[in-house]
Every structure is written in C-alpha cells, then in structure tokens.
Fold each of these.
Amino acid sequence: MADKAILYDATKCTACRGCQVACKQWNDLPGELTTNRGTYENPPDLSANTWLKMRFTEIGDTPENLRWLFARRACMHCTDAACVEVCPTKALYHHELGFVAYKRELCTGCGYCVEACPFDVPRSGGGGAGTVHGVRTMSKCILCEDRITNGEEPACVKTCPTGALTYGDRSDLLADGQARVASLKSTYPNAYLYGEKELNGLHVLYVLDDTPEVYGLPANPQIPVAATVWQDVLQPVGWGLAGLVALGLGLNYVIARRKIKINSEEE
Amino acid sequence: METVERKPKSTPILHYIFGAPPVPGEDVVERYSRPVRILHWVNAVAWIVLFITGLLFFVPQFSGAAVGGWSGLFHRIAAVVMVGWAALYFVTSPRSALSAVREAFKWGRDDIGWLQAAPSYYMLGGEDTMPPQDHMNTGQKLWWLTVLGAGALMILTGALMWFFKGIIPSGAFMWSAFFHDVGFIALLTFGLVHVYLSAFHPKMRGIFWSMWGGKVSAKYAESHHKKWYDKVTKE
Ligand code: SF4
Ligand code: SF4
C-alpha cells in the first residue's frame, strides 16, 4: 500500500495549537498542569500524554530582525526508525501505511526507544505505571492509526485552520512540498523540504523557509551507532557463538565419552 | 585426609545425571568451604533468573513473558541478591575472597602447558602431556577471570541503565546496553562450558558434588590438581 504522510508547512502555521488540542481530544490524553514560563509555548515538552506540541523559537535581538518561528514537534515516523531498531519485543513496528505504530501490550517499558530516537520523541509513562514493578510503557504519536486506517485524516490535520497541515500519499505530498519550497526560494534562499531524504524518508515532511537547525531540527539525524552495531552485529554474533559452543560441547561429549571409555578399558 | 562416614543423601537419579559422589570409605579432601558453596549456589540461582529474564528481551517470541514488567523486576531483584551476596562474602571473609581473586591472576608455565594439552586431554582423555595443576586449573582460571571481568562490566552497565537513565546522555545509555549484551554473551558461552565441564564431561563425572558437599575424592584431587593436592596433604 502507498505510504501515507503528513506535510507540515511552517510558513503557513500560526501556532494556534489547535492540532495540540485535537490530538489530546481524539487520543483521549489528559491535559497537564503547567506554570507560566513567559512564553506561549506550552506544555514545555512532549510527554506520555502530549504526543504533539508546537515549538516556538525566537531569533534576533532587535525588533527589526526579530523572527518568531513555529515548528511541529511529534514523531517523524522515520523509514529508518531507531526506535524500531532497538525495540527488543518488536512492540514498535512499521505499519503497512509506512508510519511507525506500536502494540502497547508488547511494551516492556525498557525505554530503549526513548534513548535511541534521534528526535527525542517517545516517552515512558503511558498506560499508567505498574503498582509494584513501577514499569511505565512507552507513548508517542501513532499518526491516528485508528482514523487513517478508516479513511479519515489525522485529528491534527483535520483541525488545522490555515492549511499548514495536509495529509495524503507521501509521494503526492513530496511533490507538493517540493513545489512549495521552489516557490519560497526566491524570498527565502535557505528554504528546505525536511524529511525528504532524512533517515531514508520521514513520514512527516516539513516545508521550512530556513535551515533545519534554525527550527531546532537536527540537520543530519542518524540512528545511533551503538544501536546499529548492537542490533545488527552483536546480537547475531551472540547467537552464533552460543550455537557454536553448544555444538562444540555436544561433539566433545560424544567423542570424549567413547575415547575415555576405550582408554579406561585399556588400562 | 579424612573419609566419608555417612552415605550421601542424594538420590540415584541425580547420580545418573551428575555422576556419583565419593563413595563411603573413600579418601577425600576438602575443596570448597561452606560459605564458598553457598555463595556459588546463590550466584547460580541468581544467574539463571538474570539469564532467563534477560533472554526474554532478545527473543521476540518470548517477549510476551516480559510484558507487564515483571521480568524486569525479577531481573533487578536477582541482580541485587547476586551483588549483595558477593559483597557480603567479601566483607565477612575478606582474606579468602582476596586470595581467590588473586588466584585468577596467578599464571605460570604450567598454564601454558595446560592450554597446549587441553584439546587432547578434554577430547581424547590423553593425560601424558597435561602438566600438574594447582587448586584452580587454567580453564577454571579463565572462567573465573570471565566471571570477574564480565561481572564488573554487567554491574557497571546495569547500574548505569538502572539508576542513571535520563541523567547520562542517550549515547552512553545505548553503549551501556551494548556492553551489557557483550557481558551477557561472554557469560552465557563460558557459562555453558563451565556447566558442561563441571557436571557432564566424562572425565569430570561426580565432581559436581564437590560444590555440594565440599569434598572431592583424593584420587580425583591428585590426578586433576596435583600441585594443590601435594600442598594440602603435606599439611
Ligand atoms: S521520530 Fe523517533 S519515535 Fe518517531 S519513528 Fe523516528 S525514531 Fe521512532
Ligand atoms: S519501551 Fe516499549 S516500545 Fe520502547 S523499546 Fe522498550 S519495549 Fe519497545
């Protein structure tokens, strides 16, 4: 099936945060009590109950050159997803529609994904904590799996009043984004379509009028090296070694038993 | 030197699996003191719990058993028991603990000889080339070194992931997970060899019981640990 995606156009976003609210509403995520930090940006960070938030960035120090930038912050639904790579129980997986879904009932709360994600997205603490063992399962954006598999667009997209968020086939959105960036280039030479190539393609694309760093996005996100060598090298090596040793011991048993019997009979 | 007076209480089925312990009337020597034996079995049980609860993390098909977080809790309890008991032993018997640690690092010419003779010795039972061994033979020293080294690695990386999650940078966390896995593989593979050699290898039949009752037959001690045997019988 064709990969689905969200296209976020930062140049059309007014940071009304309707998407934040819609996300909470549809996914039944309770609000959080926060304190005034002197910014409209709220809550301060993603959490197990906040899967989507807008990031506010102020750049420049005089009224003339001041820029106030907004960027969506939620799971990027990476093609090369570090979280999927490290998840020991395969609770996290790629849905056939391309995004990164998870089965909460398989999550052990190990938190490897929390550490591995290059975008610092997953959070422990979903689904409550066990009373005795205190385990808190992982939570993150699921691209409204229940909506999109029923032909609806995600709640955030549905609610966006300015058209900054659109949803559709990733290939279509890629073309839209490229066209938009091309038209922005004359005024904003640094304009960039983020997510086209990053991690082999994100399923959330960003139209930016400046470099990713300016928007607080990593310029070159990577799966952590430790995660790759661990999962793709060490684990198969470990299985191979254990198998070889078991085989060797079995072989030794068969040979040694015969030989040693013969030896003792000779004595 | 002493002799076994009582009939051993273990059942014949266990003799079948692990070989028979020294028979009544046989000359025996003390090999492992009671605290050492208790330490060994506390460790062994904790190791098995750690191994199983850890393994659940690597086999997606088993992961159902890890769900809900109970396996993680048992993993931590077993870790605390294992480390705690070892620490307790160290505090209560610092001398024997230290000399045991030192034993792992005492290497000499006969250890080289052991390495050369081992394949034929353990495969074919050839005894002629095997140099006399001390209380620990070279293989045991290697296992003991693995336990000490990998054990330290497991404690360090485990503690980092348990207590410092979110405090240390995520890269340090991922490398901890990596090296916890390295230690796991080392202990698993060498642990298999250890279990096999001390319970099932045809030349070691019955030696299993020395970690149970503390005694080995004088005959075994002389043929497998000549240097040590000479030392204890001289006293
Ligand atoms: S952004 Fe993070 S949580 Fe989302 S798919 Fe990528 S690695 Fe996984
Ligand atoms: S916390 Fe859950 S989802 Fe994340 S890696 Fe561990 S088992 Fe997988």
Note: Residues A 86-87, 89, 91-92, 102, 107-113, 137-138 surround iron/sulfur cluster (ligand 2) (CB under 6 Å).
Amino acid sequence: MTATMSDGIGSVPRSTVVATAGDYKSDQEVRWCPGCGDYIVLNTVQAFLPTLGLRRENLVFVSGIGCSSRFPYYLDTYGMHSIHGRAPTIATGMAVARPDLSVWVVTGDGDALSIGGNHLIHALRRNVNLTILLFNNRVYGLTKGQYSPTSTAGTITKSTPMGSVDAPLDPVSLALGAEATFVGRALDSDRAGLTEVLAPPPATAGPPWSRSTRTARSSTLVRSTTSRRRTPPRTASSGCGPGNRSGSAAPTSSA
Amino acid sequence: MHIADHDILTPGDHPDVLVAMNPAALRANLGDVPATATIIVDVDEFTGRNLARAGYTSDPLTDGTLAAHEVHEVAMTSLTRGAVAEAGLGKKGAERCRNMFALGLLFFMYGRAAELTETFLRAKFAEDRGVADANVLAFRAGWNYGETTEAFATVRVAPAVLPSGTYRQITGNTALAYGLVAAGERAQLPVLFGAYPITPASDVLHELTKHKNFGVLTVQAEDEIAAVGAALGASFAGALGITATSGPGLALKAETIGLGVMTELPLVVIDVQRGGPSTGLPTKTEQADLLQALHGRNGESPVPVVAPRSPADCFDTALEAARIALAYRTPVLLLSDGAIANGSEPWLLPEIEELPDLRVAFATTPNTPDGSTGFWPYRRDPETLARDWAVPGTPGLAHRIGGLEKTDGSGEISYDAANHDHMVRLRRRKVDGITVPDVAVDDPDDRADVLVLGWGSTYGPIGAACRRIRRAGGSVAQAHLRHLNPLPANLGEVLARYHRVVLPEMNLGQLASVLRARYLTDIRSVTKVAGMPFTVEELQAAITTSIEEIVPA
Ligand SMILES: Cc1ncc(C[n+]2csc(CCOP(=O)(O)OP(=O)(O)O)c2C)c(N)n1
Ligand code: SF4
Ligand SMILES: [Mg+2]
C-alpha cells in the first residue's frame, strides 16, 4: 500500500463550533427491538462524538449487514450501509483515499467474525486509520436468531436445536492476535465504560492526538454485550429474533 | 518477431525463419514452421546429450527431418565466445550473448538498422560496461557473419507508413495502467487501485505502484472482495476507484459490484480474462467471461461493458471506462484478455491535452426540491440520469447510502413495490442511455455480402484474415465492437445490411447469443477455446466458406 500510515484523527479538520449530541441524530426513526442494547450504544456514540471536536462532515460511518449495521442511518454523518462482512474493506478505501476523514466501522459478531473475519484481521493488522465498533450479541439478530461465532457451545437456536457444538471465538483475543493498536470492551449497560473505550486511548492521544508512527492510530474494538444477552440464549425463543421481539417496534426488515 | 511494411495485426501464424538455439527449441517449434521456412540452428548445442534430453533418438540435422527446409548450421556458441573475448566476461557470461549473435544475423538478413538496438543495449547494461560491450560485440559478429559467409538470402522490408509522432512498444497491461493514470489526470481525481494478485492481471498492479507521483494509490488487499471494496469506498470518498483481476476474481467481486450498481458510484472493474472455468488455464487466453460481466450478479444489475481490441487500444479503452463510470456514476467492466495483456505493439504517444476531459462536478450545495437544507443522494441529471455525488467533507450534505432499495430522489430506504419496479427500470434505462459511438464498418468496395464482427483480441486475426481475402479478390466487411453494453445504436441496422454475419469468439458463442436475442437476427458463430488466439488461416477459411455459400465460386 502506498498510503502513508495513519496519524489518528490528527489529520481530520477540527470544528470551530461546538456540536451537541442532537447534531449527530439523523431524522430516521430508530427501529431496533425495544430494550435492545444497540440503543444505548447509539446514544452513547451520539453523546461522545461532539467531544472529539471534529468537523461533522468529515466523519464517515460504514457498516455491513445486521441489526447493528443499521447504525449509520441514525447518525447525521456521511455513511454507507454496505454488504455483509465487507465494511472494513470499504472503510479501508475511504481512509486510504482521504486521510482527512475519521472513518468508523459498525459491525456485528456475525458480520465481523463470521463472513467478514478475514477482512477484520487484515484491517486490524494493516493499521489504516479506522475505528471499528463490534456489537457482540452472540447471535445473528437480523436473520432471526441463529447461533453465531461468539455463541457459547450448547446454544440452542433454530439452527442448532440440539445446542451448538463449536467453540466460540473471543473477539478481544482475535483483535489482540491481529495486533490492533487499541482494543477495548464494555457492556451496553455500562454507559461510562462505553464512553471510556470510545475515547482515544492516552497512548495515541498526544496533542493533538497525532503521531507520525505506526502506533498513532486509534482502533477501538468495542465489544458490547446487550444486557438482554449477557448470558447466551439457551432456547430458541429466548434468542434475539422475532420470538423475542415485542410488538410493533420490531425491525421491519431482514437482510 | 514479425516485420512488415504496414501495421501488424497478429504475431503471425507461421515464421519465415526459425532460429533454434538447441534441440529442445527445435522440437518444440518445428510444428509451426512451414516447409518454405529457413531454419538456423546453433550447431554447438546439438550434442548427443542435448539431443537425448530433447527426446530425439537420432540427429534431426542429419536424419532427414529437416529435408524440406533450407537449414543453416551455425556454430553460434563458439563464434560468440570468440567475438566477445575482449569484453573480459567469463565463459558462461560470454555464451549468454549468443542470442545477440542470432539477432545480429537476422538484422543482416532483413536489412534492419543496427544503431537503435546498439543504443538500447548500451542503455540496458549501462551499469556493467563489460556486459554492454559483449552484447554489442556479439550482435555485430552475428551481422558480420551473415555478410561475409554470403550464405543467407537477404530481404528488404520497407518502412511502414504510419501517422507521425513518437512511438513506443507497449503491452496491454502497461497500456491499461497508463490509461488509468491518464484517467486520474484528466478527471483531476486521485486514483485508488485495489487488487489481489492473479495471472494475467497482476502486471497492472505492478505498473501502477510506480505512479504515486500522479496521485495513484495502490492497495494490495487480502482478497478480491477487499480489493473492490477498497475501490468502492474510495469512490464514495471522492476518488476514482479501480480494481483489476481475472475471471475467478471477478466472480468474488460480484456482490460488491452489485453494491456499486445500487449506490450508483463510479467504479472501474478490469477482468483480464484467462481460460476457465475455475482455475482453468491461468496463462492462456479466452473470452469466456462476457456473460459473467454482463449478467453475473444477483438481481437486475446492469453494468456497462467495454473491451479493448489490441494492446495499445487498452489505453483508450481504460479512459473510456473511466469516462462512463464518472459521468454516469456506475461500475464499468473492462474485459481484456491474456493475449492482449502480454502481447505488445507500437503505440503512438498521445498528447495529454487532447485526451477526453473527464472532470466531474461534485455536489456542493443542498439539492432538495424545496431548496432548503439537506442532500438528496438520488436526485439525477435529467439527461444522463447520473445521480448527484456529494463527497465526505462537504458541509451540510451528509447522507447515507447503501445496498437496500431506496426511493428515487430522496434516497430514503423503501420497500414499496411500485418504487422498486421504477428503480429497477431506471437503473437499466441509465445504462441503456449511455452515449457510445456508432460502430464503424470497414467495407472497402461496398460490395460485401458477409460482415465479420468481433470484440476484444480477435481484432488482430480477423483483420489479417479480411486483408488476405481482399488481396485474393474477395469482398468482406469488418466491424469491431468496443462497447458490449450498451451496444452502439447503429448495430442493428449494420447487422441487417449483410446477408451473413460471422462472429469469431474465443468462447462458445457468448456475444452471438446476446446479439441473436437482442436483434432477432442469425449470427454465424465461429468459436475456439484452445487457450490460443485464432490463427489468420483458421479465420480466413471460416470466412471464405461463408462467402462462398452465398456467392458460389
Ligand atoms: C451475503 C449475505 N449472506 C447472508 C446474509 C444474511 N444475513 C444478514 S445479517 C446476518 C447476520 C447478522 O449477524 P450479526 O452480524 O451478529 O448482526 P446482528 O443482527 O446480530 O446485529 C446474516 C446471516 C446477507 N445479508 N448477505
Ligand atoms: S433482533 Fe436482537 S439485535 Fe436485532 S434489534 Fe432485536 S434485540 Fe436488537
Ligand atoms: Mg449479532
């Protein structure tokens, strides 16, 4: 790759006006199941972004496919809801072509660790200027609750009626193995913890959060376990699918 | 090597001279050599051991194998060793110069000017004076050998009359790379080229890595999906995203190309075709990815397709692909093939300022119908149907796009049946409406009953076959398609004008089936999938048969 290695968000233009969480809310109706942990992550991110002090138009959120990947629609930034598992590739092109952008990937455990596993490890090791938020609910939410690469062995779902047999992947081990420059995790029920892992880590946040070396990028891997999913689903009906969705606010789409 | 007093269309079916540097080379190439050809061998290499290694049980130089040929036994190894002695190379290094001895001899036979070649050798080996001297000495020794032995017939080939200007030899892959660099220059956009190595496309990546000074970024991705993803992401960010691969890689890119169709972003996808299916014949040529290019995606997913016809034409075709991608905000597929990629021909260097202007205007102000704030990503130019393109960093125009169906204009996600029907037809209409030049027909005496139509690398052998038929007094028309989707507007009328249309393709008749379905016209398919281009003879015979059926000879 001929692009210069990233220097965190130091090359992203800063805003002269102070933004609010409201500035980052799009006009789209949020359509996750009531009680879904994704709401808390969204609210936390919306409240956090103004603290970066960046120009809002220089932020891009790219997602794959899944419930979590609807995220970009709810943020008033540039964004792309791409295809299943491939968001890190698209984000890599954006970040390489435009060092003045702060590029974020929003992905799920299926999106990032199953279909997109290869892209994830290469995005991490390549150290392009990206921040990746992985929403780990240990299930394929959007496709109605099949087990995922992070489901614990024995998880009973529609596709594993006798319980899943394969061992789960630990996203943090994977990210550390790929030598991501920053890895953090938090629970969705812990807003302070979520905010903490979103913030650029001190090692990469020297004024103004930029360094010219390889370690200067902030790659945040947030492992967010929804409060409803803190223990893996044990039965098909307790999965993150329609059987568990209440009423009319359930997502109206599948992908 | 092929020398002529006119532009050369193919490497030629059969040589007039074969230089065999050893028995194995003789054995491998003798099948292509007609009885009229002269054979020159390095007799020093025809030892018992080398003959046995090449699988000869008796010496072809004495057993009558070459009886029909004029054979020259030249002790090239020892003559070369003697000639380069003063350069002071070791025995091995000296013997390596034999190929220059052979070249010098051929230059004498064909009366070629030696100066350029000597200058080239001096420049190529500028680092090592001894090697440079030795190569030049061997080259001159070969020439002198031809002159003093008086054993070789000499042939004069007059210089070709070609448009004046500076020419260089160029391969198809290099010309593609240069075309992409030029496209970035003419669009005044950075180019992001994503690729995963694959034969025979890798040289495009290799070449582009040298042009960072022109704003070309290359990403060697983890696979073909990532390569096209990076290109598409770069396009969203306001660059010209490009990716190149071969057939197996195109299969992997399909879903992302579909995303490009849906998000209506510029993207150039190059497929340097090789023999398929699956891993197939990586180093051999074929044109069997046409239907994959046209249709190989889920849903109604129309994509413009262009194809260069020769190595040098890759330059212009790359610019054309970029023009369509940028002007219409669409993925464009460019189909080259192994024969073009590695083949080379003289290329007249263009004047950069005379190349097409590819600049695009990004959206910079709100475009909502009520003129208020905000951005409608699917608002279109009424003429081209290209959507407005706002790039990140532009204040006030933040928007989200993606693979889900969306409302025309506003770009809001929509599951509405009527809207989907409208959008599917609109995406098709946009591609159908791309302006492409009419196809030109070469019908010199205007009397031809038969039209030979082609696309891609068959241009060379088709052109050479038509020349031969005309020289023999026959009439035949030739037309060659650069645009395979959309097809030129005049193509239906052109096809209807002839009694018979012959369409040679290196596949089982893919374009023929497209044209039959589109124009309800019969097409005579001539197919070959042997990993090799058509020979001129093969096509001459096939075309002549078609002509004679209509006009009994
Ligand atoms: C190529 C492809 N294969 C399969 C799907 C179907 N699909 C959509 S989302 C998904 C799994 C999503 O799981 P995860 O990433 O964990 O997201 P969640 O919904 O749990 O947030 C699958 C299998 C698809 N959209 N595309
Ligand atoms: S299915 Fe699960 S992940 Fe999807 S919105 Fe509902 S609770 Fe959230
Ligand atoms: Mg999930």
Note: DSSP finds six helices and six strands in chain A.
